[in-house]
Amino acid sequence: MAPKKKDSNGFHPRIVVFACNWCSYAGADLAGVSRLQYPADIRVIRTMCSGRVNPAFILKAFKMGADGVLWTGCHFGDCHYMFGNYRAEENYQRLAKILDLLGIEKERYGLEWISAAEGQRWSRIINEFVENVQKLGPKKLGVKS
Amino acid sequence: MIAAGSGDRCRIGVFVCHCGRNIAGYLDTAAVADYARTLPGVVYVSENHYSCSEPGMKEIGRAIREEDLTRVVVAACTPRTHEPLFRKTCADADLNPYLFEFVNIREQCSWVHSKDRAAATCKAMDLVRMGVAKAALLEPAEAIQVEVTPAALIIGGGVAGMTAAVSLARRGFPVCLVERKQELGGRLHDLNLVYPVAEKADDLRDRLQKNVAKYEKIEVLTGAGVTAVNGFIGHFEVEIEQGKKKLSRTVGTIIVATGADVLVPEGMYGYDGHQVITQLELEAQLRAGTFAGESVAMIQCAGARNQERSYCSKICCFTALKNAMQLKTARPEMPLYILYRDLQTHGLKYEAFLNEAREKGIQFVRYSADDPPQVAGGVIRVRDLNLNRELTLAVDIVVLSTPLVPRHDTRELSHLLRVPVGENGFLLEAHAQLRPVEFATDGVYICGAALWPADISESIFQAQAAAAKAAIPMGQGLVSVEPITCQVRPELCRGCGLCEQICEFHAPGLTILQNGTRVAAINEVLCKGCGTCAAMCPTNAIVARQFTDRQLLSMLTTALRDWHAPAVKE
Ligand SMILES: Cc1cc2nc3c(=O)[nH]c(=O)nc-3n(C[C@H](O)[C@H](O)[C@H](O)COP(=O)(O)OP(=O)(O)OC[C@H]3O[C@@H](n4cnc5c(N)ncnc54)[C@H](O)[C@@H]3O)c2cc1C
Ligand code: SF4
Ligand code: SF4
Ligand code: SF4
Ligand code: FES
Predict the structure, then answer these.
(1) Measuring from each residue's beta carbon to the nearest atom of ligand 1, which residues come in under 6 Å?
(2) Of B139, B212, B417, B529, which is most buried with the most CB atoms under 10 A?
(3) Which fold has domain B266-404?
């Protein structure tokens, strides 16, 4: 995938990405091994499983001025711990309702399944996510510390 | 025993790796190192040409000792490949290996932002700061040692199960071999001849059965099924039902050898079990000597390599060749067609059979998946791609080569053993190249057609591999488990039981205290450390070691508070 030079109005969003050790983090590594370029506007936090991510972390991220937060893990059936990603999905659905009530645009958050073999998919998802957040501009809501 | 580093003092060392030009070529490592020096708790920073080389590791070890480091952060490639190495470097320098933190600035930075040096450098600084923030909060831990019961359970008594049983018994380990049917043998009971050695399936089965019977160490339970499995590597408690009898056994390892089903092609090509039959049914008739057809056409990939089942079942092409050659040898004048999409005759032997089949006058017709043969009233219409011509073949028997498919009860087994199922519905091994024939769950192994459509020789060598792997922990008597587990802080737990409900590994359990309050505790040997319970506990009573709330939140906070981005060029 070619590194797209985006019409970003010079805006570098702050995007936090949670990745699980066994699939999506490995997919991100594969994107690296394959030299698939994407914008440097993300900071990845690794957990063992997507189920480890507490929705409160994501609320906290937005509160601290994140422009976007992406939650990633293994496809259903692939979770190293069997069903951690099903829990993640349940928690995400609840979180999405709250974020919606807070008036945070849908493009600023997401839950994505990426396997260890899907370097392409990782890179595509990051490219698209960053681009969408760039289009929205900085998030206005939220307290900055 | 490795000390936690001196007291609670936090003296962090940061090592920024160049990886030759892999990192240093795309971001300013000197700037990253200078920046690291300004971070709270950091007392030592150095740049390494190759951190994982002998000199690189020596430098880390030296710095731990001479600079009295109590935490180590390496900013380099990825923890997925190099974390064990650097943990060991720390341990060798008498620093608890769990006081180490990895920062990924190669796979997830220099290699993916290689056209934007400024942005990559900013990101690497942030990632290092996040790593340092987590490192400051790391706590020492000890690998968990678990005793291993030197006995194995094998589920399924086909070729694979019997082979694995003998292989373990020969090493001196007791084996409990559980077979659902009344007799050992699996699919061999249904087959006629088995290729590539053209042995009678009955002879092979008898030989394997006799072999099993030779070993007193193998307890054979036929007409039996496993109803419950609890525990973990080294100590699985297994419940077995044999008729009305209920048995329990304790084993250290488990091998799954449950084989596969054969697709029944209901509704395909007019399948009726009489004029249109499967290869499996043909083999039964050949065995019994009841086959009476005068002319035969075989259709390959019946229900395979399509939308529903994308994989190649691998055994059907040579099975068709095998049975066609049987028929042709008995009656050389018999018209015999094999309609195929691609002929998969892998390996040394099967390709030779294909050439032999051609010489014997078997006719091969290539059809397209988009335009499959039409079967009606003993007549097949098919477009032959090789000749580019419509053919009309009149035959009395049509044989469908249907694929091996996951056993109908695979899901139940997957739940019983807590092992995953892959996209095609077969049980899924941990990693095809790095950890074949093992599940991600420690101490549980797999072989034969339960994993993937395998022929007999593959099933045999997988069975031997699984047995060899199971023998390792049983031979050592002890295994060590990563201390990435969860713990309950009883003072915060209000006994809601959610953790107990959601954990697939039955690690959390509630106990009732003398004063009647309920409180959860997590069995660390059962806990796999996914951390899901920690995310879901309503009172945040659960601490996920190595990934605590404090550690993750401090990474998050520092990332957002001091985010670096390259200056905007107008
Ligand atoms: C038509 C046909 C022709 C073939 N021809 C050849 C050939 O010529 N050459 C060749 O190499 N291969 C051939 N094969 C493939 C061969 O059958 C397999 O490679 C082989 O049987 C795999 O052995 P297995 O032990 O893994 O499975 P199986 O032979 O299927 O044995 C599995 C056993 O596990 C038992 N079981 C399943 N679930 C449970 C449970 N939950 N509890 C207890 N027991 C359980 C089953 O009852 C069975 O006995 C052919 C297959 C077919 C369908
Ligand atoms: S530690 Fe990793 S990044 Fe550093 S030299 Fe070795 S492979 Fe390269
Ligand atoms: S979920 Fe939390 S509060 Fe509930 S029982 Fe488990 S540890 Fe206690
Ligand atoms: S961390 Fe995962 S495996 Fe361990 S107790 Fe919690 S839910 Fe179960
Ligand atoms: S391990 Fe990736 S989602 Fe559970």
Answers:
(1) B 155-161, 178-181, 186-187, 191, 194-195, 225-226, 257-260, 262, 279-280, 283, 315, 319, 322, 407, 413, 448-450, 454-457, 459
(2) B529
(3) FAD/NAD(P)-binding domain (3.50.50)
Q: Which CATH fold would you assign to the domain B152-260+406-479? A: FAD/NAD(P)-binding domain (3.50.50)
CATH architecture of B12-141+550-561: 3-Layer(aba) Sandwich (3.40)
CA atoms B531, B536, B542, B546: torsion sign: positive
Measure A121 CA to nearest chain B CA, in Å: 14
- Residue B278's nearest CA partner among B250, B311, B304 is B304
Average pLDDT over residues B162-167: 98
- The Cα B407–Cα B158 span in angstroms is 14
Higher pLDDT pick, B191 / B143: B191
- Residue A87 CA to residue B393 CA, distance in Å, equals 56
| Contact status of A53 with chain B (Cβ, < 8 Å) | yes
Number of Cβ atoms within 10 Å of the Cβ of B268: 17
Q: Does the pLDDT at position B570 exceed 50?
A: no
Domains B152-260+406-479 and B266-404 agree in fold? yes
Rounded Cα–Cα distance for residues B452 and B503 (Å): 29
Of the candidates A40, A54, A66, which has its C-beta nearest B119's C-beta?
A40
Parse chain A into domains and list their residue ranges: 17-75+104-136
Q: Is the Cα torsion angle B244, B250, B251, B256 positive or negative in sign? A: positive
Does the CA dihedral B405-B409-B412-B413 come out positive or negative?
Answer: negative
Inter-chain contacts counted by CB atoms under 8 A, chains A and B: 153
CATH class of B486-545: alpha beta
| Contact between B189 and B183 (Cβ < 8 Å) | yes
Neighboring chain B residues of A25 at a CB cutoff of 8 Å: 80
Give per-residue pLDDT as tens, B386-431.
999 999 999 999 999 999 999 999 989 987 887 777 778 899 887 7
Q: Give mean pLDDT, residues B74-96.
A: 94
Tokens 């995007």 sit on residue: A15
**Domain residue spans of chain B:** 12-141+550-561, 152-260+406-479, 266-404, 486-545
Q: What is the pLDDT of residue B345?
A: 85
Residue B2 has pLDDT above 60, yes or no: no
Which helix H or strand E contains B72, and what residues bound it? strand B71-76
Q: Tell me the backbone φ, ψ of residue A113, rounded to 5 degrees.
A: -100, 125
Q: Given a cut of 80, is residue A7 above it in pLDDT?
A: no
Gap between the Cα atoms of B175 and B157, Å rounded: 12
Nearest by CB: B555 against A45, A51, A123: A45
Residue closest to B161 by CA, chosen among B214, B218, B201? B218
**Residue B474 to residue B520: CA distance in whole angstroms:** 32
Question: Nearest CA of chain A to the CA of B528: how many Å?
Answer: 7
Burial annotation B319-338 (CB, 10 A radius, 16+ → b, else e): bbbbbbbbbbeeeeebbbbb
Model confidence pLDDT, tens digit, residues B326-373 = 999 999 999 999 999 999 888 778 888 899 999 999 999 999 999 999
pLDDT band at B434 (very low <50, low <70, confident <90, very high): confident
Dist. CA B153–CA B411, nearest whole Å: 19
Q: What is the pTM of this model?
A: 0.70
Burial class (CB in 10 A: 0-12, 13-18, 19+), B78: buried
How far lies B305's CA from each of B308, B410, B427, in Å? Answer: 8, 21, 19
